[in-house]
Each structure stands twice: as C-alpha cells, then as structure tokens.
Amino acid sequence: MSELMASLAVLAGFVVGALAVMVVRQGMVQQRPVASLDGVDPGALPPGVASVLAVLPSSAVVLDRQDRVLRASSAARAFGLVKGDRLMAAELLALARKVRRDGEIRESEIEVIGHRFGQEATSFAVRVAPLGSYGQVLVLAEDQTEHRRVEAVRRDFVANVSHELKTPVGALSLLAETIQDAADDPEAVTRFAGRMQHEAARLTYLVQDLITLSRIQGAEPIPTPGPVPIDEVVHDAIDRCNTTAAAKDITLVAGGAEGLQIWGDDELLITALRNLIDNAVAYSPEHTRVVVSARVAGPHSDSVEISVSDQGIGIPESAQERIFERFFRVDAARSRATGGTGLGLAIVKHVAAAHNGAVTVWSKEGSGSTFTLRLPAFGGMAVATPGTTKIPLEAAQ
Length: 397
What we know:
The chain is α+β, with helices and mostly antiparallel strands. It has helices at 2-26, 49-54, 74-78, 90-102, 145-181, 186-216, 230-247, 266-282, 332-337, 344-354; strands at residues 59-63, 69-72, 82-83, 86-87, 106-112, 122-131, 136-143, 226-229, 251-256, 261-264, 289-296, 303-309, 358-364, 368-376. It comes from Streptosporangium becharense.
C-alpha cells in the first residue's frame, strides 16, 4: 500500500504542479460561479486543465471555494463520488475543506458505499491538494478494491499454506521423538516409521502441488505447447491413479471418442486429469466405478470435453461455487483423512485457464459428481476417429 500511495503522491504532485503553472501563465485572477458540471463556464478553469484531468486513470475532481464541482472525471461519476455539481463522499468533502483552510496536502483511505442496490463498497486511496490561489481544490481517488482483494487472498494463502505445512511437519517431529523413546521395541519402531513415511509423502505432495500451482497461475503462456492426443492423456492419468483405485477396489473406465487432439502441454493436462481422478477415487465408496470419457463438445464444435464421473458422496450445492478455491474443503476432517492437499481442483482450474478452456462441475449429494474439462481442439475443429470407442481400462477387477 505504501508503494501505491507513493506513486499516487508523485502523480498528484505532477498534476498539481502542471495546473499551477497553467494558472500562473494564464493570470487567472477571477473565479466565476458554476451552476452545474454540464453547464460549467469554461473560464472557471485554466485552459487545458480539463484535458489533463481527462487522461488521468484515477478519479479526479476539482472543487471551487463553495465546494461545488468545477470538473469531474468520468471515473469519479461512475463510482458515485460526484452527482451533479456536488461531491457526495462526506469524508472527501471534509478533507477538501481542511486543505482549503490551511493549504496542506492530505492523504487518506476511505470507503464509499455503492450508489446502486447490491453494489459493494469501494475502497479508495485519496490525495487532496490546493489548486491555485482562489480556493480551488484537487481531489484524486484511486480505486483500491481489487488490490485489497488480492492482498486478502494472498494473506489467506500464506495462512493456509502455513497451517497445511505445520500438520505433517509437527507429526514427523512427534513420530521421531516416539521412535527414539521406543528404540527397544522393533514392532513399535516399524509402526511409527510407517506413519513417518505417510506424513513425509503428504508433505511431498503438498510441496509438489504448490510448485505446480505457482507455475501455472502466473498467467504466463505455456512454454512449449503442441498437439496433445487426448487418448494418451487419459491413459497416462488413469495409469498414475491405478494403485490408489485398486486399494479401494474401484474400477477406472476410459470411454468415449478416440482420435481427439488439443493444443497445449501434455504434462499439465495429465496433472489436471489425475487430480480429478484422484478426487473421484478419494470421495467414492469401495467397489464402485469412476468413468473418464472424451467427446466433441457438439456438432461442428471447436472444443473437446473430458469428463470424470464418480458414484461418490456428491458435493452440496452451496459449496459447488467454492470448490475450485485453494485449500477450500467441503468436509475438512474427511479431506485430511484422504491425504489431500486442498490444491488439486485449484490446479485443475488454472490448467484449464492456461489452455483457454474451463472446468465445470455437476454434483448431487448421494449420487456422485461429474467434472468436465472443456478445451479448444487442435486445428480449430474437434474431429473424432469415426466408429471407434475406447475399451474400458480397469484398475481393479
């Protein structure tokens, strides 16, 4: 925030200086009353001032000595800071009067309630400065809403990472102490060593997911994209999930159209699909099936859809909008019991976005879930090999 305020201060200083020079050069010695912004007397402001204010990215307002608006940028009106020839934010008006009284530049942060029904409050970093010698005041307001939201997400992310790392690290420390105390009991040492391996694996998965997420969420282009056969992506993703599925006697089935291709990165797509399959296995009861299928999105479509369907516990409708958030868990206790990191679906969302695609979910509690990756086809047209259907690949009989 300090860097942003400093940048705003430099911008405001430049504008105030430029406007002051205009006032001196033009020898403005008389202020003229203004009835409204639209009907303002052009002589009320030095020539060129309106042009300078028009190119500013922030909300800009010039007040006369009676607190009437001489000029306001379109952004100031859009945010509801100005209505007619009046400044609507009481805090800004109070700052402007103080600046007019003592001539000192002031900075502050304010929140303005939305002027439309249901509109959220907007946060502003503001700077108010005197303009000329006739009681005019310049108000600059920079919208900070998105910046604050990003900062809040960043703080939550750091807090969540710290919490997730603390659990396996603490468990490893405790298990190491326990093994040391049970050095004369080979059976206990073996049991606790197994637990240490489990926690170490959990820590490894978390670090790997963090690395993957940081690599793909920076909105950077995929370094070496190319044509990716969907058949191979599905086969490799299922192969990497076979062991986990077999442990629960869950059958993994690949079906749908063959011969489809998309443009992108095969490893990222395999990672995304593996995460969807792992989730399906983790939240499905034993002796069920998880089906992975590929198809053309529709007639003459330029998109390919890869879906993962399970017969699991389903997702409450109230939670479906948040499940792609980092570390969000529908059932925290159950999620940790499955060994998940809470980052799998966030990775899927970012991989889809990196390929100019999207991921959607359909789910009903008690009936299972279907996650669908929709991705642009290679060559601009999705074409499947005619008359072919994949043979089911089973992870467990």
